[in-house]
């Protein structure tokens, strides 16, 4: 975990921080807004006002780890990885979702929040989780008592996001980092159903709700010497994080910053959508790396 987290940033409040780092000139005034059940409608109204100008959306989730592994014969490593994703997403509940908004030049909204951190209902006494993941999130100052008492019901969230203009939109571009599990949870929330048995069926649903997605981990295949998890990549790009690592709002904001820096440094400001759009790192692959899969900050 990142040990450089600023101690003055409260986990359940808002973050407003002036950023003067030379690599952050596109983000002069960023804020992270926490969303709970009581202000969900109000904050979705604020988000709708940003569209369509701020049509690049960076996304990250926090979820309670990996608690199960599939058993059986698998034709490809992609098939194994999808079944790993499916059985865990079906068993577990999403904890946080972070959304950060940018325009096509990588600029964030001026004079208002740039990031919304949605906090879902989660009960440590009733819901399943991996102990190490909960310890990591607790150390990142996620307050599980608040999630239990004030968290958003996924079905209510789904009703709002469906009508928000964020999904089912061809002109909206999603920016993520190693996001197969992230989208697994979002598809589950949107459909209120378990994930499809077959990976191909999942991709049909995924591409319907999210027609244009850029997974930075997939882009990195074409980026010489760029490697590692999100924080490692941000360090290589000399980007400064705002907010605590392993909270979805901060991670989504850093993901968006990394995307635009990579686009300019490695793709001359233009990423070929035909080549890179719609691919999720870890799915659709046929090779295994030393017998292990890696999900951002965790080997699974």
UniProtKB/TrEMBL annotation:
Swiss-Prot/TrEMBL keywords: Cytoplasm, Exonuclease, Hydrolase, Metal-binding, Nuclease, Nucleus, Repressor, RNA-binding, RNA-mediated gene silencing, Transcription, Transcription regulation, Translation regulation
Tree of life domain: Eukaryota
Main localization (coarse): cytoplasm
Subcellular location: Cytoplasm; Nucleus
Renumbered residue ranges of the record's region Disordered: 1-20
Top EC group: hydrolase
Protein name: poly(A)-specific ribonuclease
Organism: Cinara cedri
Lineage: Eukaryota, Metazoa, Ecdysozoa, Arthropoda, Hexapoda
């Amino acid at each position: 975990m990142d040990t450089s987290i600023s101690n003055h940033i409260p986990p359940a409040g808002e973050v407003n921080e002036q950023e003067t780092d030379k690599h952050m000139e596109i983000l002069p005034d960023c804020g992270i807004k926490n969303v709970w059940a009581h202000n969900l409608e109000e904050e979705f109204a604020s988000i709708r006002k940003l569209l369509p100008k701020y049509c690049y959306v960076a996304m990250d989730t926090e979820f309670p780890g990996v608690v199960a592994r599939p058993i059986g014969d698998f034709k490809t490593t992609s098939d194994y990885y999808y079944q790993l994703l499916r059985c865990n997403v079906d068993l577990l509940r999403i904890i946080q979702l972070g959304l950060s908004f940018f325009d096509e030049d990588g600029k964030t909204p001026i004079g208002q929040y740039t990031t919304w951190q949605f906090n879902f209902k989660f009960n440590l006494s009733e819901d399943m989780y991996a102990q190490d993941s909960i310890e990591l999130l607790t150390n990142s100052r996620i307050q599980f008592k608040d999630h239990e008492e004030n968290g958003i019901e996924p079905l209510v969230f789904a009703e709002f996001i469906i009508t928000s203009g964020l999904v089912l939109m061809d002109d909206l571009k999603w920016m993520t980092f190693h996001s197969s599990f992230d989208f697994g949870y979002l598809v589950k929330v949107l459909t209120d159903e378990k994930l499809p048995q077959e990976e191909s069926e999942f991709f049909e649903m995924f591409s319907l709700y999210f027609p244009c997605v850029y997974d930075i981990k997939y882009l990195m295949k074409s980026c010489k010497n760029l490697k590692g998890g999100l924080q490692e990549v941000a360090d290589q790009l000399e980007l400064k994080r705002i907010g605590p690592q392993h909270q979805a709002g901060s991670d989504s904001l850093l993901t968006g910053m990394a995307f635009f820096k990579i686009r300019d440094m490695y793709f001359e400001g233009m990423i070929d959508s035909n080549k890179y759009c719609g691919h999720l790192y870890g799915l659709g692959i046929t090779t295994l790396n030393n017998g292990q899969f890696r999900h951002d900050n965790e080997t699974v």
